[in-house]
Amino acid sequence: MREMAVLTEGKDRRCHEKQVMEKNQEIRIILDTSGVFYAIMAMGVQPILNNEGGYF
Fold first, then answer.
1. How far is CA 39 from the centre of its chain?
2. Each residue of 1-53: pLDDT tens digit?
3. Are 52 and 16 in contact (CB under 8 A)?
4. What's the gap between Cα 37 and its chain centre?
5. What 8-state DSSP symbol labels residue 55?
6. Rounded to whole angstroms, how far apart are CA atoms 56 and 51?
7. How far apart are CA 44 and CA 42, in angstroms?
8. What integer pLDDT is reported at residue 7 of this predicted model?
9. Where does residue 54 fall: left (phi above 0), alpha (psi -120 to 50 degrees), or beta otherwise?
10. Which helix (H) or strand (E) holds 51?
11. pTM score > 0.85 for this model?
């Protein structure tokens, strides 16, 4: 039972890391477009990252 939980957790984590990577790519594109947009995104994303916790 515990092994199943560990496998599921690992799968969720990989999925989450993929989402984070995609989000970072979006931020990079926005940064290329405009520093102001990047600042707004960073302010909006930061609380979400803090709430997720443990992945970074």
1. 16
2. 556 655 666 667 676 677 777 777 776 766 666 666 666 666 666 555 555 55
3. yes
4. 18
5. -
6. 11
7. 5
8. 61
9. left
10. helix 35-52
11. no
- Calpha distance 16→30 (Å, rounded): 21
> Which residue range forms the structural domain that includes residue 26?
2-52
Encoded tokens for 5? 């939980």
In this structure, which long-range contacts are made by residues 48-54, counting pairs with CB atoms below 8 Å and at least 24 apart in sequence? 52/16
**What amino acid is encoded at 38 in this protein?**
Y
Give residue 56's pLDDT.
46
Tokens of residue 9, six digits: 């957790």
Is 3 in contact with 45 (CB distance < 8 Å)?
A: no
Please tell me the total count of domains within the chain: 1
Are 41 and 28 in contact by the 8 Å Cβ rule? The answer is: no
Quick one: tokens of 52? 């997720």
